[in-house]
Write a structure and sequence with these properties.
Layout: E1 15-19, E2 27-32, H1 46-59, E3 64-69, E4 72-76
Antiparallel strand pairs: 1-4, 2-3
Length: 87
């Protein structure tokens, strides 16, 4: 009895998530928890911190939310995610 030829199934692609180091890094902003006014986004934490101090001086509001956003990039089969999105 002879066997029937069956083509090999394609190997599933293995995806990993890594910190995206191709951009500027984390984005930081601050938001007043009293009036919801905000500092706007910045590449460093210094600008939002200065905004908080100016805002407390001007309004007396003392509560702030610091928002930090960083990014992931998916890459396939262990390759570093340094190419364009989707590659």
């Amino acid at each position: 009895m002879t066997g029937t030829y069956r083509p090999a199934l394609p190997r599933p692609r293995l995806w990993v998530l890594r910190e995206d180091r191709t951009s500027s890094g984390p984005i930081t902003e601050a938001e007043c928890t009293t009036c919801m006014d905000g500092s706007g986004a910045a590449d460093d934490g210094g600008g939002p911190a200065v905004w908080c101090l100016a805002h407390v001086q001007a309004t007396g509001h003392t509560g702030f939310r610091r928002i930090r956003t960083d990014f992931f990039r998916a890459s396939c089969d262990g390759q570093r995610g340094v190419g364009p999105a989707g590659s």
